Amino acid sequence: MKFGVIGGLSVEDGGVRHLPTAPKQRQLLGLLLLHAGEVMPVHTCVTEIWGEHPPPSAATTLQTYVMHLRRLLARMPSVGSREAAHDLLRTTGQGYLVVVRPEELDLLRFEQLVEQAGRAADDDAVARLLRGALALGDRPVLADVRIGPVLRPAVTHWERRRLEVHEAYLDARLRLGRFRDVLAELAVLTCRHPTHEALHARYMTALWQTGRVGDALDVASRLTGRLARDLGVTPGPAIGRLLSAIRRGDDVDASFLSAFPSVPGRRRA
To answer: According to the model, what pLDDT value does residue 94 have?
Structure first.
């Protein structure tokens, strides 16, 4: 049995997809899976599905959605019964929760790999583990599910989390001296995040290390222009120090990136 939220909602068992088609049922399942192991109060589920002005029948309709989801789960061979489905999608005094093991949900597997990377002894192991986490999917969380007021900040949090992990992966590769190998990834990421100073610092470092000094200066120039145009600010002092070192021809290596820490295995506040 496999559940997925990275890239889109998925439910698979024995290679067969078991996925609700009704949009609001998909939305409810996505909410419960994104908060697996946590109780989602009834009022939270109602707010996610119907917003701030739900119909009078919302709580009753929510119970119907839960019933349909349990029926779907009960048809899965590895669940196999109504009782097992109730154990998987539980009702508490306050609301509902989904109980799954880390290997059954891609988001939990993602965090498991990141935590293992945080305990790894060397950068080769860090890069391998974080690459495995990132390989679980590169599209936004619940990309094919309608997003309401509760899911929206949660999805945003997980997208930031994934970017943090990607930064940590790139840092491990840079510390290993794989500068040329990360250029394509950094080119894409800096296009996606044109005001993200840490990503641009990594790109500048990799370009300098591969002899592309002019391109590194161009990246700094684009960043400066975009920050001024979009946010009305200038790059921070860490970018300034990196740019000065490149212009002077100093040795620019991964140590410059300590000003832009990425911490695998621990979520930033």
So the answer is: 87
